[in-house]
Write a structure and sequence with these properties.
Layout lengths: L35 H11 L4 H20 L19 H10 L5
Helix pairs in contact: 1-2
């Protein structure tokens, strides 16, 4: 018994719109590493303090914060993080609803 072969339909040659080439952008510049010494010097100049005094004060500050963190406590420095925009985009509400049901 010979089985009947199904006729295959010719694939539709849908006319696709040619894509626009991606715009050429300059490669992103790598973030520059700033040392604590540089930060200390800038703060000293801003507040017109001698370098030794500024360096001593801020070195003690970093040591104290490090000790607190090693002890397992938290340090709140709210100005070190980027601030969120005033209004979230509309899709953010949906994301929050799915991820954090009780925190919307």
């Amino acid at each position: 018994m010979a089985s009947k072969a199904k006729p295959t339909a010719a694939p539709h040659a849908a006319a696709k719109k040619p894509r626009k080439p991606a715009p050429v952008t300059a490669p992103k510049k790598a973030a520059e590493t700033v040392t604590l010494k540089t930060v200390f010097e800038q703060l000293g100049e801003t507040h017109s303090l001698p370098k030794k005094q500024t360096h001593g004060l801020l070195t003690d500050f970093v040591a104290t914060v490090t000790a607190i963190l090693k002890a397992g406590d938290r340090v709140r420095m709210s100005d070190l993080v980027r601030h969120r925009p005033a209004a979230d985009p509309p899709w953010m509400k949906l994301v929050r609803r799915r991820c954090c049901r009780y925190h919307v």
